[in-house]
Amino acid sequence: MVSRVIPVDPFDLVIFGGTGDLARRKILPGLYRRFCAGQMPEDAAIIGAARSEMDDAGYRQMVADAIREFGGVPPGEDDQIARFLERIGYETVDATGTGGWAQLKGRMREGCVRAFYFSVGPSLFGAIAERLHSNGLATADSRIVVEKPFGHDLASARALNRTLAQHFDESQIYRIDHYLGKETVQNLMAVRFANVLFEPLWNAQYVDHIQITVAETVGVGGRGGYYDKSGAMRDMVQNHLMQLFCLIAMEPPAKFEPDSVRDEKLKVIRALEPVDPHHIVRGQYAATNGDPDYRDDVEDPRSTTESFIALKCHISNWRWAGTPFYLRTGKKLRARASEIAVVFKDAPHSIFGAEAGRHRNVLVIRLQPNEGMTLDVTIKEPGPGGMRLVDVPLDMSFADALGPDAQDVTDAYERLIMDVIRGNQTLFMRGDEVEAAWAWTDPLIEGWTARGDVPKPYDPGSAGPEDALMLMHRDGRRWREIRT
Ligand code: NAP
Known about the structure:
The protein has about 475 residues and is α/β, with parallel strands linked by helices.
């Protein structure tokens, strides 16, 4: 298969926070890969902006180091990197001050796409939006890319939406959730809406339940200060898991266009039932072997913030009435693994008798590692000896059928940045979606805060607290194993 990479229009991309961790680990290496793939036009310009004093040459060196460290660059690409660096510049700009804005404006060209990536702490989002406007950098065609977290609760998300709306139209605001940039997440939509096979079964009549797992092996590490004010619910469920949940549960949009897709996602969030407190399990990693506990990592010996959460929720609509959705995410778990599993119901009658055991079709959408999809189907175990049944996974990633290009290594960030340049908001969250997600999560957080609930301890390297396993066992179901 020949890869069809279509170059995007000429652009000026300013990365506020261009010296930060996200820029160095994800954004800049991703842009380099798009350059190597031939997607970046000759006259693209990328300008880093932060408070640190640096000239273009200094920043180019930093970018080259970042590409080599995080870009998976094979040896011998020095010429390629040098050509990429010709597009890179740097301006010292204080987001909360007046310095550097005029110089930044001086670098921007007329007549090409302007994108401003806010890769800075969320407290600076409003200040940058305001200064882009007051310094005349924002044109009618400019776009801003806003990182997570988008607010801390409904009130702060609304306030941020209002602030951004003073300076930019909703069609110019790209709220990024990199989970939506993953190849399999988009493949999920293709599988659902480009085939007749799945959609007739995609409902409460045939689906027993759906599990969404986002498991990490790392602890809170150096992010303890931020994380302890946030916790797994705010940091992961309100955004990433909610987005996956919407795509799996939404009605077919009329078109694969931004507002068609986002309207359907919004309807899912609005149809979510409040969660019974007994269906929420919060956990905190607590080592028994002398390794640091969560509380050591966040330097608060009495912290009650959750590093793990599992919950069961329901959607009140015709499609999903009665089908439970189980969500879980946590840190310091057994393996780094993110997946969605659609577990179909048993066949209504088994002609093979009880000894054939229980067999169910399971569609697994694997986000990381090893992005791909499998469908477990039940077949006869080959060989003599009677009719024995076995479940085998059908690999739906089709890497073999489509050739090496099918194993696309495009990172979610680079895919999404190219969408920004193309002006395609389909894979970005709209303001009302984010607010609706907070409107659902806020009462749950307020509930456990008011009750004084304390998270259950769990061993690092485990699957979370015992109660999380019980959440499913009580319903006669079980979580899929967390494994890479
Ligand atoms: P970081 O490493 O702390 O970098 C922050 C950047 O902002 C630096 O370049 C810093 O440079 C710049 N900055 C700080 N104050 C500034 C000011 N007043 N004016 C201009 N620039 C300023 O943070 P990060 O980890 O890259 O995260 C950036 C954003 O992405 C955050 O919103 C974070 O929540 C989000 N995010 C990060 C990750 C990740 O993996 N890192 C993942 C998801 C989301 P100077 O100090 O030189 O000004």
